[in-house]
Structure formats: structure tokens, C-alpha cells
Specification:
RNA-binding; 16 strands; 37% helix; 15 helices; five-stranded mixed sheet; Rossmann fold; alpha+beta
RNA sequence: GCGAAAUUGGUGAAGUGGUUAACACGGUGGAUUGUGGUUCCAUUAUGCAAGGGUUCGAUUCCCUUAUUUCGCCCCA
């Protein structure tokens, strides 16, 4: 038997309904925020991700799906959304004629070659947002408000917003150097992973789980102390806007993010749900004022986030969040025999085109099993068509809740259903 | 890239180195030939992830591979 590729999954059934509900909610929310829908290719030139995400990041060094096409081009299945949206912004010259800021949203599959586990897949879906061309802290705050409001709309309770700032490039560089200088004498006290981090990305030492309780961690330099005036002011304003939007958050000075391109604000929203597992960060993002330039565009600031849909769905399950899903159909049509099937097929189509959720027996079941089927489908009405009905056009329809049976002329059927189901 | 545990029918699962792989749900047919959801009867895996090995004999033991689940790293 052919099995699905590692780290992928199929969607169907109840999960499919819930997923569609969440997707529609996202779409509606982005409409209210007046963001523009973007869809970029699933694969892009490998270069885009190498330069965009960062040559030294884990995502690029060991997690991309790279391949060559028949024209010997180097291509990569997108591991994240931001680089592609930035490419599209530049390539379509949106910095010129378009209204600035450009506020983009996207939703689709991403691919990373990782070891699957709780809340982590090789093909996974992200919903994300990018705002180009505004350095205003209001943009940062608005971007943070999107996931928070989505979770609110869904009814998800156990969430926690963590924010921090890395400052602009200058501040960030100063801070990085300070950290290296600080940790150097203690390098041997750190765990193996942190020794590795010291060389690759010293900022990440700060959110190590193993060493978290060491004194050297607690006394490590804080980003806040290395901010220049502009950066400090920017962060203060972000917090003020969040307050005015009634978005709750906590400042976590150890929050740094793995992607190279962040400057100023970074944030994460985590699910603080009991038993959720270790992959509990539902979404993450921040400001990237140099990325557009890095990818050969004109200097343009940006801010955005990305959210993993699978983790959101898991969190919703953990909290037993209910959704107003349609469960059940309006009509189930039973042909008594093969002779009535064409008549039934026509009737079925009529009902569907008039807006009724309708299904029909495809398997020539006997009447008993057809009634069972109607129950399983949770049908409001059952329509039985035999020779008599076919010849007279008087249709037998049974209300499956009250068990009342009616004989109705086929021309009045739509009216009858409208009145019965309408309210 | 590293570590741990799993994999038996449509589903949930029990089970054992030896001849017919429990039980339950579901499916199908019938008792009831145009009205069900109750009950009763029958039927429903030449098969225990795939391949190889040990053995007189393996679903049960060993190896390899695949997938799943859970950690680490990293990330959404």
C-alpha cells in the first residue's frame, strides 16, 4: 500500500469542516482590516530563500526542499511566506504607483524537511500578513492585533502575547557584540547546544530551556539597555498603541527570533493550554526594515507575522472550542426502484439549485437502509419516490423530526420547503 | 541531524512460536416484497505495515525499510 509522505496529512470529515470555518473567518477578518490577498508560487528560485531568510538559519541550511527542474534551474519549495511576498512587492513595483502602505495577507502550504512531531509537519499551512512602507509603530501594533483578534473571534482563551524589541540594525549589532563579550568567559558553563549557538546566533542563547535558570542567564545584558533613542521610542509607541487597542501582552526581554531579518519589534503568541506539547507557539513575527533592500528592492520597511494553522487547530481542539457548523442536510431522496431514479435525479438537481442541501441514494439500497441513511445524514426531510409519485407528480415527503408525512404537488415542493426550513 | 515507543479488518481493539486470529461497532442480506431508527438471524481479515532471516513451523523472535506518535535542535 502506498502511504502518505512523511510529515504530511489528509484533511476530510469533521476536521475539514472546522478547518474551512477557520479559513473563512480569516478571510472575513482580513477583509475588515482591508488587507489585500496575495498568492505567490509554491516554489521559487532557491536564491530567494537563501538571501531572504538568511544563509545561516536552520531553515535554509538543513530544512529546504531543493530540486532542479528539467531546465537545470535551482528551485526550492517555499519554507515560509515573507520572502515570496517581498519578492512579489519588488517585482511588481508596488513601491511606485501603488498606495503605500501595501498591506498583504496570504494563506497556503509551506514545506520544511524536519522531523515530524506534535504540532509540526513537513507540509504545513501558514496564514500570514506583511505591511510594507510604514515605519509607524501603529503598523507593528496593528499586525500584533490581527492574530489576537482572530483568536478572540474563534473563542480561544489560553493565549499569551510576548513582545520584545531588537532595536534597529545599529542597536541590534551593539547588543549582539555585548552578548558575545558577556558570554565568552562562561562558554564552558553553557550546554552543548548553547556552545553551538554562541558561534551561530548568540541571541538565541537567551531562550535556551536547559540553561534558563543559570545566574549568568539572569544577569545577561538586556536588549532594552542597548537601544538607541529612536529604537527606544519606537518600542514605547508600539506598547502605547497596543494598550489603546486593549491588547494584553507581556514584555519578554529574552524573546529573540530565529530568522535573521528582524529589527525592532518581535513578538510571539503562545497557547498556554495544559498538555499542549512543546510546539506551543501559534504565531510569530516582527518588523524587518532591511529585508526589501536585501532582496534588491528600494529601502522599504516591513512588518508581519506568520501563523501555523495546524497548531491553531490543535489549540482549538484542546479547548473544545465549538463552531457553528452545518451538520445535516435538508432533503434525502429515496427512489423506490431503478425506474424512478431519473425522476429523482431531476428532482435532486432542482432542490439543490434552489438552495437546499440535498442528497440521494446512489447505491440502490432497500427502503429500510435508506431510512437509516437519512438518519445518519441527519436529514430534515425524506422524499420517497415510487411509481405512483412519478406518474402523478404528487410527492411524498416526510418530516424526519416530527414523522409527519405530506403529499405535495411537485410544483409546490420548493415553496413547502422554503416555509418549513426558512425560519 | 540525534533519541524513545508504536504499526493486527471499514473502525475500536484482544491475542498466541503450531493446525478455524476473540469481542464490539459499522457494512450487506433477511425475518418485515412502500416507511426505518428496537429486536433476532446470517454474512463480513487465506490475514496481523513491507521485505528478508532464524525455525519442522512465525502475526508472535531477529534485522532492514516505510509510516505514526512523543522528545531534543529549530520553528508556525
Amino acid at each position: 500500500m502506498i502511504q502518505k509522505a512523511k510529515g504530511t496529512y489528509d484533511v476530510f470529515g469533521e476536521y475539514g469542516k472546522r478547518l474551512l470555518y477557520v479559513e473563512e473567518l480569516i478571510e472575513g477578518l482580513m477583509e475588515k482590516y482591508n488587507y489585500e490577498y496575495f498568492r505567490t508560487p509554491i516554489f521559487e528560485s532557491s536564491n530567494l530563500f537563501h538571501r531572504g531568510v538568511g544563509e545561516t538559519t536552520d531553515i535554509v541550511t538543513k530544512e529546504t526542499y531543493d530540486f532542479k527542474d528539467r531546465g537545470d534551474r535551482d528551485l526550492t519549495l517555499r519554507p515560509e511566506g515573507t520572502a515570496s511576498i517581498v519578492r512579489s512587492f519588488i517585482e511588481n513595483k508596488m513601491y511606485g504607483n501603488h498606495t503605500i502602505p501595501v498591506k498583504a495577507w496570504y494563506y497556503g502550504p509551506m514545506f520544511r524537511y524536519e522531523r515530524p512531531q506534535s504540532g509540526r509537519f513537513r507540509e504545513f499551512y501558514q496564514f500570514g500578513v506583511e505591511v510594507f512602507g510604514s515605519e509607524d509603530p501603529l503598523a507593528d501594533a496593528e499586525v500584533i492585533s490581527i492574530p489576537v483578534n482572530l483568536y478572540k473571534l474563534l473563542g480561544l482563551k489560553g493565549i499569551k502575547v510576548n513582545i520584545n524589541t531588537l532595536g534597529d540594525s545599529e542597536s541590534r549589532e551593539m547588543y549582539r557584540n555585548a552578548l558575545i563579550k558577556y558570554f565568552e568567559p562562561y562558554i564552558n558553563d553553557l550546554c552543548e547546544d548553547c556552545k553551538e549557538r554562541f558561534n551561530k546566533n548568540p541571541l538565541r542563547i537567551l531562550d535556551c530551556k536547559v540553561d534558563a535558570n543559570l545566574d549568568i542567564m539572569k544577569n545577561a545584558p538586556k536588549t532594552i539597555d542597548y537601544l538607541n533613542e529612536t529604537s527606544k521610542k519606537h518600542f514605547e509607541m508600539v506598547k502605547k498603541y497596543l494598550d489603546s487597542m486593549h491588547i494584553e501582552y507581556s514584555v519578554n526581554t529574552n524573546l529573540v527570533r530565529g530568522l535573521d531579518y528582524y529589527t525592532h519589534t518581535v513578538f510571539e503568541v503562545e497557547a498556554s493550554v495544559e498538555g499542549f506539547g512543546s510546539q506551543n507557539v501559534l504565531c510569530g513575527g516582527g518588523r524587518y526594515d532591511n529585508l526589501v533592500e536585501t532582496l534588491d528592492g528600494p529601502k522599504t520597511s516591513g512588518v508581519g507575522f506568520a501563523m501555523g494553522i495546524e497548531r491553531l487547530m490543535t489549540a482549538l481542539d484542546y479547548e473544545n472550542v465549538s463552531m457553528p457548523l452545518i451538520n445535516g442536510i435538508d432533503c434525502y431522496i429515496i427512489p423506490m426502484s431503478e425506474n424512478e431514479k431519473e425522476y429523482c435525479a431531476h428532482l435532486c438537481m432542482e432542490l439543490r439549485l434552489n438552495g437546499f442541501i440535498t442528497d440521494i441514494d446512489y447505491n440502490n439500497r432497500n427502503i429500510k437502509n435508506n431510512f437509516k441513511m437519512a438518519d445518519r445524514l441527519n436529514s430534515k426531510f425524506v422524499i420517497i419516490i415510487g411509481e405512483e409519485e412519478k406518474n402523478t407528480n404528487i410527492i411524498t415527503i416526510k418530516n424526519n423530526e416530527t414523522k409527519e408525512e405530506y403529499k405535495i404537488n411537485s410544483e409546490e415542493l420548493i415553496n413547502f420547503l422554503d416555509e418549513s426550513i426558512g425560519e
